[in-house]
Amino acid sequence: MTATVLPRLFTFQPIERQAALIRLAFPGAHRVGVLLSANQSGLLDELETDLRTQGLSLVNAILAKDEQLITPLENVLSEADLLLALPDPVVFNRNTAQSILLTSYRYRHPVFGYSRSLTRAGALLSLHSSPAEIGRQTAEWVSNALLGPVVRLPAPAHPAYFSISINEQVARSLGFTLPPEAALEKRLGGMR
Fold first, then answer.
1. Which domains occur in the chain, in start order?
2. How is residue 43 annotated by DSSP?
């Protein structure tokens, strides 16, 4: 048996899955806002393609180095129906998250997040994978890899298992009625 390194499991949810959840949770939405740093601007083509597949259009702004966040954020929010938060540390970090959430709330636009903690902080809902879900997938990879005479691990992949969290207080405040988390997870899981 040959030793190998475990493949990297991306904790970032695939954009295709995020777009599908946006369509399920916000059937009346048409324009999805995204604020990215220049480092993450390479995601724009994939975002546009996967959103278009769900009948959604992309409204975006690229945050220039050392640029203040508020003007690009307000430009995006003035044209979008909701804000898709991506794990871009230049845009979303401990110094900016509260301001982004409050500004979005002031525009009465929901924020679609990427972690349970972002939901607790004020995002309307988030799509994320817990450490237990990532551990489950990793254990499956290792178990399957050890079945043959040579250890063969799969290529890096997005998480197969995921959870959805909803901030019910934000939903009520913004006037949204969403299906329960478990129902959304089941419907989204069936779209694989």
1. 15-129+162-189 (3.40.50.2300)
2. G
Closest CA to 181 of 21, 11, 16, 18: 21
Tokens of 159: 């998480």
User: What DSSP state is assigned to residue 40?
Assistant: G
Digit-coded pLDDT (tens) for 55-101: 999 999 999 888 889 999 999 999 999 999 998 999 999 999 999 99
What letter would DSSP give residue 57?
E
Which residue in this structure is represented by tokens 């994939």?
46
Note whether 49 and 82 are within 8 A (CB): no
Strand 125-128 to strand 82-84: parallel, antiparallel, or no bridges (unpaired)? unpaired
Q: Is residue 119 within 8 Å of 126, Cβ to Cβ? A: yes
Give 68's contacts (C-beta < 8 A, 6+ positions apart).
none
How far is the C-alpha of 11 from the C-alpha of 145, rounded, in Å?
Answer: 21
Q: From start to end of the chain, where are the E strands? A: 31-37, 57-63, 82-84, 111-113, 125-128, 163-166
Residue 116 has pLDDT above 60, yes or no: yes
Concatenating the DSSP letter of every residue in 168-180 gives HHHHHHHT-----
The secondary structure of residue 158, as a DSSP letter, is: -
Q: Which amino acid is at 165?
A: S
Residue 130 DSSP one-character state: -
Helices (H), the chain: 15-25, 44-53, 70-79, 97-106, 116-121, 131-145, 168-174, 181-189
